[in-house]
């Protein structure tokens, strides 16, 4: 059996999975090219809400499963980022502002009436993964954020240039998320490199990141298909 990878080899193996990232999904390509209708944008935002809503819960699951105080201490910031330190603050609240900026009401996002079955299954599957797998595999799954800053920047630029009907208050989520994603993903990768030292652990980390790419891809498959029918 092959021995463990070096840190550089493991890092390369994870980064190579960028080719499976949802930045390359046909729906995101169309979104960036300006080819989405207001209905497409609203469907994307309302469905993506279901993913946003899961993020604090999956981060809490990681903390619950992790025996290391030094990891829990830093990971808890990710819950506060989304939930806010006080009511009316944080990423979820900013996502609801984005929803309003594209013409959705808060009520129709919060009651999840637009959430598609495929999105629900994919996101619930991700939450189940984080509740049942070793904490470091769920951390490895968060490595998709290594790929997100450039993608989110392109998205906001495309919105500014090609979707002038979106009210600019809607951009606040991404203005805050892009620098946070850079910081968070550097820490995420370091944790994976520090804690995945055997060949089995490293394979599990690569599998976890592949799984997360599948989750995100499945979300967009559902959003894309609903627009075609
Ligand atoms: O807009 C995006 O394309 C995008 C992608 C991802 C990602 O790659 O997982 C995240 C986010 N946004 C995001 O906003 C976010 O808070 C986030 C947390 C995580 C994670 O795995 O812990 N991914 C992402």
UniProtKB/TrEMBL annotation:
Its EC number(s): 1.3.3.11
All copies of domain Thiaminase-2/PQQC, residue ranges: 19-221
Any one GO BP annotation for this protein: pyrroloquinoline quinone biosynthetic process
Pfam families, alphabetized: TENA_THI-4
Superkingdom assignment: Bacteria
UniProt xrefs under InterPro entries: Haem_Oase-like_multi-hlx, PqqC, PqqC-like, Thiaminase-2/PQQC
Pathway(s) this gene product operates in, as recorded in its UniProt entry: Cofactor biosynthesis; thiamine diphosphate biosynthesis; Cofactor biosynthesis; pyrroloquinoline quinone biosynthesis
Catalytic activity: 6-(2-amino-2-carboxyethyl)-7,8-dioxo-1,2,3,4,7,8-hexahydroquinoline-2,4-dicarboxylate + 3 O2 = pyrroloquinoline quinone + 2 H2O2 + 2 H2O + H(+)
Gene Ontology molecular-function annotations: pyrroloquinoline-quinone synthase activity
Keywords: Oxidoreductase, PQQ biosynthesis
Record function comment: Ring cyclization and eight-electron oxidation of 3a-(2-amino-2-carboxyethyl)-4,5-dioxo-4,5,6,7,8,9-hexahydroquinoline-7,9-dicarboxylic-acid to PQQ.
Family: Belongs to the PqqC family.
Protein name (database record): Pyrroloquinoline-quinone synthase
Gene: pqqC
């Amino acid at each position: 059996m092959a021995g463990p990878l070096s840190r550089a080899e493991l890092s390369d193996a994870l980064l190579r999975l960028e080719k499976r990232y949802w930045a390359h999904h046909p729906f995101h390509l169309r979104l960036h090219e300006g080819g989405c209708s207001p209905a497409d944008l609203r469907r994307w935002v309302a469905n993506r809400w279901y993913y946003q809503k899961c993020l604090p819960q999956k981060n809490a699951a990681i903390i619950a499963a992790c025996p290391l105080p030094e990891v829990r201490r830093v990971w808890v910031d990710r819950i506060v980022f989304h939930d806010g330190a006080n009511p009316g603050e944080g990423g979820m609240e900013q996502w609801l502002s984005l929803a309003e900026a594209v013409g959705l009401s808060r009520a129709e996002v919060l009651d999840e009436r637009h959430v598609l079955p495929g999105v629900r299954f994919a996101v619930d599957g991700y939450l189940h993964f984080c509740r049942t797998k070793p904490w470091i595999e769920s951390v490895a799954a968060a490595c998709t954020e290594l790929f997100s800053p450039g993608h989110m920047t392109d998205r906001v630029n495309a919105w500014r240039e090609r979707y002038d009907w979106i009210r600019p208050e809607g951009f606040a989520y991404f203005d805050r998320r892009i620098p946070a994603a850079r910081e968070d993903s550097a820490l995420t990768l370091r944790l994976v490199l520090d804690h995945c030292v055997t060949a089995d652990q490293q394979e599990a980390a690569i599998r976890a990141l592949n799984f997360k790419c599948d989750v995100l891809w499945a979300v967009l498959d559902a959003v894309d298909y609903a627009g075609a029918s």
